[in-house]
Amino acid sequence: MRVSVALVVIGLLVGLPLVSAQADGAEPFVTAKQLDLSLVLPPPSPVDSDEMKGELAELLKIQATRTPDQVAQAQGDAELTVWRFADVLGPHFTKEALPKVAALFDRVVATEGAVVDPAKDLWKRPRPHMVSAEIKPVVRLTTSGSYPSGHATLGALMGILLAEMVPEKREAIQTRSRQFAENRMVAGIHFRSDVVAGRIAGSAIAFRILPSDAFQALFQPAKTELRAALGLGD
Fold first, then answer.
1. What is the mean pLDDT of residues 154-178?
2. pLDDT (0 to 100) of residue 9
3. Phi-psi category of residue 80: left, alpha or beta, with phi > 0 → left and psi -120 to 50 → alpha
4. Alpha carbon distances (Å) from 22 to 27, 175, 186
5. How far apart are CA 145 and CA 106, in angstroms?
């Protein structure tokens, strides 16, 4: 994709107000009104394009070689939740132990939906199983727009935020973030370009919200809570 992420991020950071916080903790930090992905991402390739055919061939190869363990992880990663990072952050990384982290990431999940869903509706890219009957997904089928991948968006966004909270584990977190995104191809429910676009979108959202006072008001207490639970200093 011919996208200059640096230029995109600079543009997104200038002069756009955040959505005000709500007491229920599920209000997005930004919506598509503040962050229009049609201005960030190129449109997806047509169904009959060579690029799409190549991506379909890649999925069929993944499908033929995926292992039971890979399938199990892809099925687990179908859940849109930050707690999937417990395999990196350890057994203390739970919703019950970390209410401030939970409240923060409830809003992060809401933000992904508010930004990505309108883009999916705009482009209406068919899912792989809608393009070819040879594709056999191992997760729940959906006919919502395939581009960009919401899971890849959220995986990138969660990875960036968690790495800011626990930089000591940055490499492992980012590796898990990429795995979370690419498991959508293992699952047979997204094309690679969906995943690439999602990771760009997640990065754009992260760089949009991280500098804001409204976000930091929730982020800093959640970071302190998480680091204390992991036995890490300030």
1. 98
2. 44
3. beta
4. 6, 32, 36
5. 23
Q: What residue segments make up the domains of the chain, in order of their start?
A: 71-225
pTM here is 0.89
Quick one: which of 174, 142, 184 has its CA closest to 58?
Answer: 184
The answer to whether residue 3 scores a pLDDT higher than 70 is: no
- Over residues 183-203, the mean pLDDT reads 98
For residues 25 and 222, give the distance between their C-alpha atoms in angstroms, rounded to a whole number.
Answer: 13
Domain 71-225 is classified in which CATH homologous superfamily? Phosphatidic acid phosphatase type 2/haloperoxidase (1.20.144.10)
The amino acid at residue 6 is: A
Gap between the Cα atoms of 91 and 169, Å rounded: 15
